[in-house]
Each structure stands twice: as C-alpha cells, then as structure tokens.
C-alpha cells in the first residue's frame, strides 16, 4: 500500500482514508464534468452535481428507479399483510 503523508499526520483510520480518497476523486469528477465548481469561499471550493451530464442523468434515473421499485415492494408487502389480518 502506498504511504501517505496525510494519513501519517492525521492517523490512519477509515474516516481519514475517505477524506484522502475524496481529495483524489473530486478533481477527477470535475474533469469528467460530473461535478462543477459553483464558487469559492476562502480556500474552499464548492461543487454541485452537473445534472446536464449524461452519466449523471443515468445515475439519477437509476436511483429513481431503485427507489420506486423499493416503494412498490413495500406497498405489496403492506397490502398482503392487510389482507392476511382482515
């Protein structure tokens, strides 16, 4: 595994590994157009999801479909329980 000055300084635990991964991931997502810069506050750069990006649109559609499927399953389970009780 690659040594990290950041992890040596703040401690090597799962939370810090996520922060390190985000520091690598955010520039790549920006390069792909998945996220876009919105503004800067001091040294912090703020981003938002680029809903005009094709891949993002596909992820949103997938997310929506999964939520609808889960809700439909819950409705069916609830309806079946009501029938059994009645």
Summarize, please.
With 86 residues, this protein is α+β, with helices and mostly antiparallel strands. Helices cover 66% and strands 15% of the residues. A two-stranded antiparallel sheet has the order 1-2.
Compile the SSE list and pairings:
Blueprint: H1 5-10, H2 14-32, E1 35-41, E2 44-49, H3 54-85
Antiparallel strand pairs: 1-2
Which descriptor suits the 3D outline?
elongated
Could you tell me the number of beta strands? 2
**Would you identify the regions where 5 or more consecutive residues have pLDDT less than 50?**
none
Helical content stands at 55-70%
State the helix count: 3
Strand content: 15-25%
Please summarize the sheet with the most strands: 2 strands, antiparallel
Total domain units: 2
Q: How would you write the strand order of the largest sheet?
A: 1-2
Terminal CA distance: 60 Å
Which class of secondary structure composition applies to the elements? Answer: alpha+beta
Write down the secondary-structure element order. Answer: HHEEH
Q: Rg to the nearest angstrom?
A: 21 Å
* Average of the residue pLDDT scores: 89
Commentary on this structure:
The protein is α+β, with helices and mostly antiparallel strands. The protein folds into two domains: 1-50, no CATH class; 51-86. Helices cover 66% and strands 15% of the residues. A hairpin with a 2-residue loop joins strand 1 and strand 2 (44-49). It is elongated.
